[in-house]
Amino acid sequence: MKTRFSSYDIICGIAELQRLIGLRVNQIYDIDNKTYLFRLHGGGSSEKVTLLIESGTRFHTTSFEWPKNMAPSGFCMKFRKHLKNKRLEHINQLGADRIVDFQFGSGEAAYHVFLELYDRGNVILTDYEKTILYILRPHMEGESIRFAVREKYPVDRAKIGNCELMESEMREIIENSNEGDSLKRILMPILDCGPAVIEHVLIEHGLENHLIKGSVDQEKGQDESSKKQSKKKNRKCSEINPSDIQFFDLASDLPTLMLAIKSAYDIMTFFLNGSSKGFIIQVKEEKLTNAENTEHFYRNIEFHPYLFSHFF
Predict the structure, then answer these.
(1) What's the mean per-residue pLDDT of the chain?
(2) Domain spans of the chain?
(3) Which residue has the higher pLDDT, 107 or 296?
(4) Are the C-beta atoms of 134 and 76 separated by less than 8 Å?
(5) N or C, which terminus of the chain has less Cβ within 10 Å?
(6) Residue 78 burial (10 A CB sphere; 0-12, 13-18, 19+)
(7) What spans are recorded as compositionally biased (Basic and acidic residues) (predicted)?
(8) What is the largest CA-CA distance in the chain?
(9) Can you tell me the distance from the alpha carbon of 172 to that of 192, in angstroms, rounded to the nearest whole number?
(10) What is the DSSP string of 84-103?
(11) What Cα–Cα distance (Å) separates residue 33 from each residue in 54, 89, 125?
(12) Assigned architecture for domain 7-157
């Protein structure tokens, strides 16, 4: 089962939660030391929504009656002190990073809750100047960035999204890649869309089994045994079934790869428009009820905002 939100989950989640803008915080509860419930209501209207945020993992609305802590934690009390009756003004992603900024209130009365959804995660409460008032996990990042109370939250450190890659740039990346690398491994740090989107577009364009082959210069002078050894290395480096392996050819495959990358950008644009739906991926299993009868049931294994090709 999915254990945390990926980049495209975050984009879809933010687009979906735009409907909460304008609601006010009625109350805040904590489920455990990293999971919090924000009860929101629509002022004079009868609309009531519960927003759940979990450090490092997820954010979404919920109708489930979660068991709450009998006594609110210090962090929960800070939330209540600063955010109660504040209106939710904005929900944004910082750059292309897995950080979500929830702004409550406006002007000098604004407060920000930064939810970090990568690595060990974090939840940070700041004032309108982004000065940290409370932080779930104080720590140092490198030697210069300190995450602690009274420090400024470094919003400018967020990863900036890539513009569309030019074919010449992608050619250079391919030429400098390691022998035996898969296209998925190469594209992961370049495209800010998560592994599921990349795998989907590679399958759609017939490139899911392509590996990078050594350059012609590297192959010159190799004897047959060296070539066999290199081929074994490629197969060992890959998670692809050895019988399905194909080697990437710059002349014939690069234009197709550029079309796949464009498809990835198109999918992300589709998400940004809030047009996605939810899909639950299930697997059919069976269990013996007695010596003669078998009962079938479906087990949930994944959930996604898009029906990707690798689930067919």
Answers:
(1) 85
(2) 7-157, 167-272, 279-311
(3) 107
(4) no
(5) C
(6) middle
(7) 214-227
(8) 80
(9) 19
(10) TT-BEEEEEE-TTSSEEEEE
(11) 9, 26, 15
(12) Roll (2.30)
